[in-house]
Amino acid sequence: MFSAEQLENIKTRKELVALSKIEGINLKKSIKRAKYEEELKLLQTELSLLQEHIVKKNLRVAVIFEGRDAAGKGGSIKRFVEYLNPHASGVVALSKPTDVERGQWYFQRYIEELPNSGQIKFFDRSWYNRAVVEPVMGFCTDKQYETFMKQVPNFEHMLYEDGIMVIKFWFDISREEQQKRFDARLGNPLKEWKFSPVDLKGQELWDKFTEYKDLMFTETHTSYCPWVVVETNDKEEARLESLRYVLSRFKYPGKGKTKANLKNDPNVIFKYFRKNKKFDL
After folding, report:
1. Quick check: is 1 in a domain?
2. I want to staple 181 with a disulfide (CB 3.0 to 4.6 A). Which of 70, 106, 142, 281 is the partner?
3. Is residue 81 part of a domain?
4. Statement: residue 244 has pLDDT above 90
């Protein structure tokens, strides 16, 4: 990246191109990154305005991030909460259930994490673990899976009737891009902690994941709680589009005053019934 001092001394585009060659900097990538950072800050400002509205109106909002491993769920959540008031927001990332929790109704530990009045919560994976990961990996029985699939639409309808808004994102990624990200994690000491034994099965069990994911969409995509698919081969694009989608669901004072682009790209983010054939969803 260019230093602030270097940019201050640049007077013309020709000088900028020449400097980029000297420094070995990809100018197109640098410009794209700068535009992304600028747009991200504007959308994060809009999200802060939305949070003020949520607090003032005592709304309850739960945003669920599901998807294949390495699809960028955690990175997107980080951008959502970066500048929010932590007293009126939170991230839910539950570890595997304890012995006590395994003896409870499956939804019970998630109910305890639902947003209170005036809060927005972000779920880094959710009760939908039982729809895809658990049956694929053998972490639940067939009966437990079938019971969950029967109960979840009713569970979400109860949340809807009680006034809790649930936004369900499925972060999609191509098989090739997932492998690239796995390789990048293993080659970076700062990211190796992200790689788990389950990740090792991600490519091997790709088709089985697809089968259960398709069943999940078919059985749990409803008018009151639809699935929203986000294509994430471009991480930065996915972050911006998911932010825009959440903002699009509300009317709040000052909306749009940042001049941020609040219109979604339907080729990147779309409801399940508008299924895009470009990738294997």
Report:
1. no
2. 70
3. yes
4. yes
In a domain, 188, yes or no: yes
pLDDT bracket for residue 237 (50, 70, 90) = very high
pLDDT value, residue 221: 97
What pTM was computed for the model? 0.88
Domain count, the chain: 1
Query: Is the pLDDT confidence value at 66 over 70?
Result: yes
* Mean pLDDT in residue range 146-168: 98
Residue 280 lies in a domain: no
CA distance 236 to 138: 33
- How many beta carbons lie within 10 A of that of residue 142, not counting itself? 8
**Mean pLDDT computed over every residue of the chain:** 90
Q: How many CB atoms lie within 10 A of CB 56?
A: 11
Query: Quick count: other Cβ atoms within 10 Å of Cβ 161?
Result: 9
Per-residue three-class SS string for the chain: CCCHHHHHCCCCHHHHHHHHHHHCCCHHHHHHHHHHHHHHHHHHHHHHHHHHHHHHCCCEEEEEEEECCCCCHHHHHHHHHCCCCHHHEEEECCCCCCHHHHCCCCCHHHHCCCCCCCEEEEEECCHHHHCCHHHHHCCCCHHHHHHHHHHHHHHHHHHHHCCEEEEEEEEECCHHHHHHHHHHHHCCCCCHHHCCHHHHHHHHCHHHHHHHHHHHHHHHCCCCCCEEEEECCCHHHHHHHHHHHHHHCCCCCCCCCCCCCCCCCCCCEEEHHHCCCCCCC
CATH number at residue 67: 3.40.50.300
